[in-house]
Amino acid sequence: SPPAYNGSSPPPHYSSEPSSGEQRIQHSPRSNASPVPNGIFIKKDGPVTVLLTGQETGVSSPSYGRQRTINGTLLLDKHDNVSRVKVNLLGNLDYLNSNGGAKSISLVDQSVTLWTSSWGPFAQHLPFEFNFTLPATFTDLAEGQPLPPTFAFSAPGLPAVVVRVVYAVVVDISYARGPLSFFPTNTIMRVPFNYRPRTRPNRPILAIPLFRSIKSSPEEWTQSVMTIKTKPNVSVLIPSVQVFSFADTIPIHLQLTGPLTSLRQLFRNPPATETSIVVVTVSIQRQIAVDVGGSRAWRELTIGEGKMTSVPPTLSQLEFHAGDEEVLDWEGELRAKPDVAVSGFVAAGVVVKDFILVTLVPPGRAPFLPTRIYIPIRLVTDPWIDTPDWTSVYVHYG
After folding, report:
1. Per-position b or e across 330-360, b if 16+ CB within 10 A of its CB
2. CB-based burial label for 126 (10 Å; 0-12, 13-18, 19+)
3. CA separation for the pair 286, 355 (Å, rounded)
4. How far is Cα 239 from Cα 257, in angstroms, rounded to an integer?
5. How far is it, in rounded angstroms, from Cα 206 to Cα 221?
6. Which of 89, 293, 317, 323, CA to CA, is 20 to 30 A from 78?
7. Residue 177 half-sphere exposure, CB side, CA atoms within 13 Å?
């Protein structure tokens, strides 16, 4: 028979918050909705005024997130001879490369008529209020694709690459033909806005240095390896999530493995200063590729920078033993530049993607060629941390 059960002992105390000496290893934050700003964006052009609600106070352009609703009010100072009042929601993707030509794709095309002369007196319909809901996707070649963010890139020279993604609320006021005119007239006012779909990583960066976590949590790191000529081997490790917010500091670790004689040829003299003249650089690169009619061209630009520091033992501290392989380590951090505000995306013939670039440039007398290692990452708008400032779910890297 089973032993007697004594249920008099209370269960141990539990708290969702770590106590002294404890820390969270992994945690899934709540999917809080972000608060909608309560400011009003106002644009006036002649007799036409447009007010858009749900905006941050003092912004130069309105902004909207994924599948958000655009709520607005239209005011007219003068309405003599007005025959129709119409508002359009338009989005367009334009791209070209000098090898294949140009292409233009409509992303959004919605419209609403707020008044026509056949509806009765103008004043009975004031004020003119309108709303549009941004779609999640657009259609290209009968295939649905996520709506791309507002984006602008232009690189002259060869190959020339230009990409422009624009969105706008467009007011169209039609006037009846006057006694001295042959054609009706129109007043058009555009209100450009930023489309900024928000995303975040699906898990955090492990806040434990590599040397302390690589054995206990190897799945938290991803490794890229390349050989410089025959030796040494270059190994680069970054967090395996490979998705980081614009504000995240990205840890990176570099390791050189090879015979000591080969390692010494990668550094300039005098050996005592090798920690300050290590020929290792790291950066975040963005590639913008455009495909028009099967002709592909791309350009790169630097959107983030980092710094590497040598980890003891340094080269001068290693003892020579014939045939032995030695290891040199560097650790550092990377971060996107403050003006980076758009994530990578794929839309029709445009692909915008990001990489960590590790460059190793041997001194001129060394018998090695420069080495470049590209590691794909994705930069997103929001950090992983549990905060009410994000609205959308994580989009898988790819």
Report:
1. bbbebbbeeebebbbbebbbbbbbbbbbbeb
2. middle
3. 6
4. 21
5. 9
6. 89
7. 6
In whole angstroms, give the CA distance from residue 29 to residue 70: 28
In this structure, are residues 51 and 34 in contact, taking their beta carbons and an 8 Å threshold?
Answer: no
Q: Which structure tokens are listed for 278?
A: 């290590």
Q: What percent of the chain has pLDDT over 70?
A: 73
3 contact partners, CB below 8 Å, separation of at least 6: none
For residue 106, what pLDDT band results from cuts at 50, 70 and 90?
very high
DSSP labels, 110-156 = EEEEEEEGGGS-GGGG-SEEEEEE--SEEEETTEEEEPPPPEEEEE-
Task: Report the sign of the C-alpha dihedral through residues 382, 51, 135, 289, in that order.
Answer: negative
User: pLDDT tens, 110-126?
Assistant: 999 999 988 887 766 67
Q: Which amino acid is at 317?
A: Q
Q: Assign residue 157 a region (left: φ > 0; alpha: ψ between -120 and 50; beta: otherwise).
A: left
Other residues' Cβ atoms within 10 Å of the Cβ of residue 151: 22
Provide the greatest CA pair distance for the chain.
108
Contact 58, 37 (CB under 8 A): no
Average pLDDT along the chain: 81
Tell me what the mean pLDDT of segment 374-381 comes to: 94
Predicted structure pTM score? 0.79
Mind listing the pLDDT tens digit for each residue in 48-75?
Answer: 999 999 999 999 999 999 999 999 999 9
Q: What are phi and psi of 325, to 5 degrees?
A: -100, 140
For residues 343 and 201, give the distance between their C-alpha atoms in angstroms, rounded to a whole number.
Answer: 12
**pLDDT tens track for 155-197:** 988 889 999 999 999 999 998 876 666 666 888 999 999 999 9
Residue 204 sits at φ, ψ, to 5 deg, of: -85, 170
User: What are the helix and strand counts (H, E) for the chain?
Assistant: 2, 22
Q: Are 267 and 277 in contact (CB under 8 A)?
A: yes
> Which of these, 368, 378, 325, 377, lies nearest to 226 by C-alpha position?
368
